[in-house]
Design brief:
Keywords: Signal
Radius of gyration: 23 Å
Pfam families: DUF538
Number of strands: 11
Largest sheet: 9 strands, antiparallel
Helix content: 10-25%
InterPro entries: At5g01610-like (IPR036758), DUF538 (IPR007493)
Order of helices and strands: HHEEEEEEEEEEE
Shape: globular
Structural class: alpha+beta
Length: about 160
């Protein structure tokens, strides 16, 4: 009788594991079907390339407040001439064609970093960036692809961060 219980135990264990793995795959598939931060940008009429590669997570609330997270701070060239920096966490408010009250994004102008406070879709072909009183317009084509973060020096422990 004990010999009959052992095969039954293995069969039961196999069925439970199969059910668990099946549910795990379903959960993973449902999680991956969530739109990415890049998809959400397009929904609000912005090109994906406004965000650099490497978004690890994001939050978007019903009032338009958002937070976007990266593995570390990120620097890259905008339109092949201006150096932009995204902090590990950026935030603000999004509405169709407008990003306002931005925090964590800055651009180097001459020798100083100036925060980007607002971005708007000026037309089908142009995007405006507001750096305090300064307005800079760029062609949408400059943001077709998400830029890659360049290596930067993490000043807290002097290691290279990619």
């Amino acid at each position: 009788m004990a010999m009959a219980i052992i095969p039954f135990f293995f069969l039961l264990t196999f069925l439970i594991l199969s059910l668990f793995l099946s549910n795990s795959q379903t959960i993973a598939e449902s999680l991956s079907s969530e739109p990415s931060a890049y998809d959400m940008l397009e929904k609000y009429n912005f090109p994906r390339g406004i965000l650099p590669e490497g978004v690890t997570d994001y939050l978007l609330q019903s009032d338009g407040y958002f937070e976007v997270y990266f593995k570390s701070d990120c620097e890259f060239k905008v339109a092949k001439k201006y150096l932009a920096r995204y902090d590990q966490k950026i935030s603000g408010y999004i509405d169709t064609g407008t990003l306002k009250n931005l925090n964590g994004i800055s651009v180097k102008v001459l020798f100083i970093w100036i925060g980007v406070s607002e971005v708007d879709r000026a037309s089908e072909t142009e995007i405006n960036f507001y750096l305090g009183p300064i307005l800079a317009s760029f062609g949408v084509s400059s943001f077709e692809d998400s830029p890659k973060c360049r290596c930067s020096l993490d000043r807290s422990n002097t290691t290279v961060v990619i």
